[in-house]
User: Which sequence fits this backbone?
């Protein structure tokens, strides 16, 4: 809240917008962990949902699909970035997907936060998701920047949300799309589910994989 107030009221500049994006990503990281821990589940509402995500959807798709069936067709991440970023390790990449899209992908991720919000809001309207107060925070933030700073406010909030999307989604995608995590021979040689899950994740320590 302090960071948001700073970029909204006290120091409305690009540097503040980017700084708030980085802080939001740290907050989202805690929200990710809160979803995994039942004792802290409600704290995810003031972290992930405050950013524009949905912790309800996150708990269902992330914990019950993604972590249970990582990098398999039952993983909801499996095709969500097709045809831009192919996460299926068994599919060949065409020239554009292998040579061009890695450089274009950040532009797509820049829009990821808003795309996620629009998709979730549409699911609420259709009655497929629970109605909660949290989805209103993202449009309220955008409206506040517009009301106080006009077009410059829209530039700032776009940079802020875009930088959040690039940082947050890049880290998430890196975890399961490294060379080691996509090694199907190594995964198939695992003797149980736990070992296969370890192989499907990246160890971010240098030279640890």
Assistant:
């Amino acid at each position: 809240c302090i960071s948001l107030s700073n970029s909204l009221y006290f120091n409305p500049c690009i540097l503040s917008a980017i700084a708030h994006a980085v802080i939001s990503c740290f907050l989202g990281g805690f929200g990710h962990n809160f979803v995994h821990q039942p004792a802290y589940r409600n704290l995810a509402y003031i972290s992930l949902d405050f950013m524009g995500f949905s912790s309800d959807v996150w708990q269902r798709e992330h914990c019950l699909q993604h972590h249970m069936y990582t990098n398999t067709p039952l993983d909801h991440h499996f095709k969500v970035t097709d045809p831009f970023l192919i996460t299926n390790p068994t599919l060949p990449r065409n020239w554009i997907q292998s040579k061009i899209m890695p450089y274009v992908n950040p532009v797509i991720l820049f829009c990821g936060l808003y795309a996620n919000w629009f998709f979730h809001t549409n699911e609420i309207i259709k009655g497929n998701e629970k109605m909660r107060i949290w989805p209103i925070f993202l449009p309220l933030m955008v409206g506040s920047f517009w009301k106080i700073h006009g077009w410059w406010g829209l530039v700032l909030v776009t940079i802020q949300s875009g930088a959040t999307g690039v940082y947050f989604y890049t880290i998430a995608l890196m975890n399961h799309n490294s060379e080691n995590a996509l090694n199907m021979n190594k995964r198939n040689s695992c003797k149980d589910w736990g070992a296969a899950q370890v192989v499907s994740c990246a160890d971010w320590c240098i030279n640890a994989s």
